[in-house]
Request: fold
Amino acid sequence: MLQTEQLTINIGPQHPSAHGGLHVEAVLDGEVVVDAIPHVGYVHRSVEKIAESRTYAQFVPYTARLDYLGTHLPVIGYVQAVEKLAGIEVPERAEYIRVIMGELSRIASHQLFIGSLAIDLGATTGLLYCMRDRERIMDMFEMTSGQRLLAAYMRIGGIAEDLPPEFLPAVRSFVRDIPKMIKEYQGLLYGNEIFQARLKGIGKLSAQDAIAYGVTGPNLRACGVSYDIRKAEPYGIYDRFDFEIPVGSNGDAWDRLMVRNEEIIQSGRIIEQALDQLPEGEIRAKVPRVFKPEKGKSVYHRIEGAKGELGYYIVSDGGEKPYRLHVRAPSFVNLMALPLVSRGGLVQDIIVNIATLDPVLGEADR
Amino acid sequence: MSSQQAVIEDISNTWGNQIEVLEDEFFAGVKVPLQILPELFRKIRDEHGFNYLANLTAVDHQDRFELVYHIYSIPDNRKLMVKADVDHDAPSAPSAVSIWPTADWQEREVFDLMGIRFEGHPNLKRILLPDEFEGHPLRKDFQMKG
Amino acid sequence: MQKIETLFVDLSDWFIAWLQSLGVPLAWADAILLLIQFLCIVGIILANITILIWLERKVSGFIQQRPGPNRLGPHGVFQTVADALKLLTKEDIIPSKTDRLIFITAPILFMTISVMLYIVLPMGKDMQVVDLNVGLFFFISLGSLTTIALLMGGWGSNNKWSLLGAMRSVAQMISYEIPLALSLMGVVMITGSLRLSDIVAAQDNVWFILLQPIAFITYFIAATAELNRGPFDMPEAEQELTAGAYTEYSGMRYALFFLAEYTNLVAVSALLSTLFLGGWQGPWLPSWLWIIIKTYLVMFLFMWVKWTFPRIRMDHLMAFSWKVLIPVTLVNIVATGFGLYIFKGIGG
Reply:
């Protein structure tokens, strides 16, 4: 009998497919994965501690740096949580603009997901196509806030500034082009035999396991659980829109991709409806720069982030700064499922699993 | 949904005056002593279908720590907040990993940043900070050097 | 026209005549000519690769809807030169834990083997360094030697990524060597010779791509794997293995691997054109220009495939070779045999 030895390799924190500073300790038996243990914390910057020494309004830009790929969503989650805590009413127009920006962020995040998955599979060209389309969203963010990536455009009580005139036509034409984009991805990526072979049946996650491990967002829906916070516990004005929750059936990498692909289309539908209903009027409620929520009050507010359930738990001690702020980051919790889906696969599947669980380390490490 | 109230009533009936029903406008919740946490969790998971632990965190109230659990049931769309006080001098609490595996990393995070030990956790190590880090930064008495 | 056609042949004839007029014996003159031919080949290879790398970047840029290099010179043609200069001036790093001898020899061996492939390639009418009667056999066997160089690089680096890359490369090469050789059998059966000049001559009337379309496709696929190009770039696989067998290499040593891969690409493309596309044969233009045009067309095909396909998974790769390619090539051989038998029966 030949003596064999297990090989431990460290994928990351510096690695072409590490998606930021993710470190996966992979134990291999030849090319077969015995275990894949994710280690996080390489970009930890302790935002929860920082929050305790900033006023509620000062903390807004920090939240934009959580999920920097879908930058408006964590900011929306935070300002809504504070508004709930302090009992602030938001003007209608601001609510609609938030929905438009939030869904655009979701599309941007999902497009980057498709692109980075393609490049992780060695199809470099796929990334460039997705980036080209994502660029249009970035341009729209630049129009509204002057920032492309970390647009802290939301304010407590509304938004920073009204939309510029060139924004609405740009969104409309982008939304119109979504089916065309999807068709192009279809032709370049989804239809490819190798692409399908690399994803179908890889990294299977059962619905029970997904719920038990707290996996949320598109990853949970890929397992066939129709759970979307926008429907289950509508926040903001999401109860006014008509959209569907795409679900998968196998919970494999392919379903995780297809669910996100479908979500791009659904987000487009929401944006279209929001554009049609967009009212005129105020964009920000009169909120003092420094305000003090009631002492002892706490709130847990969650939104459907691009990666899953994004929750903020804020405790007030009656001061102008939060007493305690906790971010429930979907990327952090979703990563816990990585060993579960990777065991028994091949080295190449670890890369697929990291890419399709779609962690963003700014959010996981906080 | 009326069953939301029914869950809290069921809990009050089982443990009587050991628990305190919280008046919270956003989130129905109960405050319980630490030692009944595992039993309570098992009960609400098995009998009331609370299968998803969304959030687990802790707050440092200087004289005590407060553990906060936000628990949902995914098919029925119900929610429950559970709070429990932890002693400040020797903070330790029972682990929920055996009930909801998702508590694994979240408990490690609380241990890392707040310094609460979770008894029965399979792998209680620091997660966000390096292993050799000293202190627990989210405690209010943590000295920040500039 | 005739002058251009026989330009290089005339040149070497004139050169030998000139040497003999100086009183050099014929054998010596031949040896000197061989040396000069060798230097020419290296020159051709380097010139070709400079263009090729630029072309690859431009083609990939075109496919990916971006301009590609466009700063140095018109359309960025000098980008490769600048890169070569950069690589040459880089510090030569040999990690301390490596097996020094193997680590240093691996890239040199790789490059040497790749250059040797050109000895048998017909680069035009009567333009061949050595016309071996087992030319094709020589080419295939030398081509498979590159595996050893890769394995040496991967093993000598003493790095887990390199080792994994090298292991993959060996597994891949062994399984793709078989369909590679088998797919050429049809051509050899029709020609009845392993001599490359005979194979070119046999395509006087009809190119073998028409007689052996399946062999062309299988050879193309197997050659992609043999060249470690996408979608079969397993040993490198930068998304998984950082750079596979090349992880520890930097500067000129890395550049040697890089150059050797492109040298191989040119050689295989030239062989493909020789075997299936009629070699240097073609109307109007001189023969040596024809082979260049055909080679570049084949190389474009390789690039096109590389920049549009995702990387295949290791186990699928092996299964594809053993379960699809090898049976198909075997069937092709049998079919060719029958075809030849019937054809001869009719032709008497």
User: Anything to note?
Assistant: The interface with chain A takes residues 24, 26-27, 51-55, 57, 59-60, 68, 70, 74, 77, 79, 81, 100-102, 104-106, 109, 113, 126-130, 137-138, 142, 144 of chain B (CB under 8 Å). DSSP finds three helices and seven strands in chain B. The helical segments of chain B are 3-15, 37-48, 103-114.
